[in-house]
Structures are given as structure tokens and as C-alpha cells.
Input
Amino acid sequence: MAAAGSAVGLGNIWKFPYIAGENGGAAFLVVYLICVLLLGLPLVMTEFLIGKHSGKSAYGAFKELKGTNRWQWLSWMCMLTAMLFIGFYFVVTGWCFNYLFEALTNVLHGAEMDSLSTHFTQVISNKPRMILFSLFPVLLTATVLWFGVNKGIEKLSKVLMPLLLVMMVLMAVRVLMLKDSAIGMQFFFQADFSKLNPQAVMKAMGQCFFSLSIGMGALITYGAYMPKNQSVSKTSMQVVILDTLVAILAGMIIFPAVFAFGMDPAEGPELVFVILPAIFEQMSFSYIFGVLFFSLLCIAAITSTISIMEVSVAFVNEATGGRLNRHKSVLLVSAAVIPLVLACVFSNSVFDVFDTLTSCVLMPLGALGMALFVGWNLPNYNHFAGKVFIFSVRWIVPIAILVIFLNSVGIIQ
Output
């Protein structure tokens, strides 16, 4: 559940619906599921294996397993990816905390759809407000990391992840009662592949990596905390299934509501923050549902920020040979994160660059390096499933990543 909490976050509930909406709905979903099966699952296993076998974070794992610094570039790529990722991710987390505050104060009660859309634009354009709400989760994450993550996150995740699922199922059932919701379900589950293009396939792969936190060392760090008797394959399967289930539930909530309220499914990043408050207004006990859902969304976001920021904290601690202990490492990483967050608050261009660069370039390249590392450096397995896994990370995963990546940048057609 702790690992699932790391993976399940804003990528599933915020990003997946609007990326799918911009790229054909059901057609994108099919490609996304293929990416999860062929790339996501083997790569989640890859990172867990690296962490579990080495007992180290991304900085020390490759040297520990290989006995050489030849693969150290991959650890630095993990560090760079995690820092850029967390820079814009904290801003989106700030949006969530803003909407939680507004749910608590009942600001949006009675608001119409048009005013909700305008309100979102006003919220993200209010720089002082966004600074406050974006830096608050930085402080909250740093506080958790200061005291350690193992016991607290595990206990919290065992309650929060099932609660989030129950809440989303209830919302999906309610949305299906709306007029014209069937059109949204058709959009999400009846594929029209004529709407697909190479960029959509690349976005599906990037979304797979974004959603599962692949390619930046977060799962290596969680793998290092994994008990020796815990099954990597079973844990990986559970994480991938739960993560994908949350993304599909998010689509089942968003798209029927989009068509019921006459909105464009390609509305963009604001889709969740406009649609969800409108859904709550249609429900009994709207205040309670609004507060509960945005509370859970904020917590889902924080469990992800903790795991991603822990990559950098553990990296600094190991890179300095322990001279900077956990407390000093947390302070240093937090100080480095704040300018990145502020840059994303003040510039939409920086926000978009960080998002695209991490999801579509750095995370795929990091995942490619990890697949090659495990495929050609860890011992072979004697059983059938192990042989399939090794063949996959040696050949299928690297070739698929390279072909999709080179096609997306126009090098091959």
C-alpha cells in the first residue's frame, strides 16, 4: 500500500483524464493499457529489484550491484528527473490544497459551470495565493521526511488507499445517473483509432511512467525498504493493478460528467478542477463529499511528493557518505526545490517544460537505462516467468522505448 500510495496520485486523477480527453478517449486508453502491460509492469519490477538487491537508494544502488561507477550517470539522471518533476508537481499539489480550502469554506457552493472554469483561471493566475498553497505541501513533505517515512506512510496508506477507491466508486455510480452520461462512457470505452498519432502514443508511454513514478528512482528507494521475504513480482502486480484501476475510475467519473455538462473532453489540465466541484453540486451532502474528496486527493498527492522527494534526500545522504544526515539532507533538498516551484508558479512555460521534459524524455531514458542494467547485469532466472522478465527488459522494453521516442521526435517514421 505504501508503494501504491507512491504511484497513485495526481497522475491518475488529474493528468490521465485530460491527456486521454485530448487524444481520443478509448483509443488512448487501449494504448495506455498496452504500455502498462508491456512497459510499466516490467519496469516497476526492475526498480524494485534494484532497490531490494542493493539495499541502497538510486545513488548507491548501481555501484553496489555492479561494483563500478560506470553506471553512475543513471543515478544522476534519477536525481535530475526527480527534482524537475517535483518542481511542477508541487504546484499542482498546491491547486489541490487550494480547492480543499475552498471546499472547507464552501466558496464554490452554487457555482455554475462557466463560473467554475473562470474561477480556475483566476486561482492559478493569483501568484501570491499560488506561492502560499504550493509551498505549504513542500513544508508538509519536508516535515514527514524529517521524521522518516517507513512506519507512518505504511500505516496511513493502508487506510487512505482503500478509502480513496471507495470514494471514487461512489462518485462514478453517481455520475452514471446524470443525463447523457452514456455518451461519455462511449467516448472512454469505444475506441476510434483514427484519432491516434505518434505523439499520442508517446504521451501514453509518458503518462504510464508519470503515473507509476517510473524512471526517477522512487521505486528503487521503496525497494530498498522492502523486507527480504516480500515478493517483488507480487508487489509490482498489485501496485500496477491498483494504479491503473484508479486511472480508469477517474476516467469513468470525468468523461460521463464532461458530456453531461456539455464540456469539451479536451479541455486540458483544469478539467478535474472544474468538473468535480460541478459533480458535487449535483449530489446530496455535497459539502461532505467535496471536503472528503479533495482531502483524499491532497493526501494522494502528498504520498507521491514524499516518495519523489525521498529520492533526492537519500541521494544527498549517500552521496556525501552520511556527512549530511537525514535532517541536513532534507533541509538542503527543500532549499533546492523551492526555487523550482516558484519558477513553475510564475511561468506557465517553465511548468510545461518541466512536465514534458520529465514525462516524455528523462523518465523514458531513465527507464531505458534501468532496463538495460537489470537485463544484462543481474543474474538470470531459471524459472519460466523469470526468463520472460529478463527477455522483456533486455529486448522488448528497450526497443519499444527507443522506437516510440525516436518516432515522437521525428527521427524515424
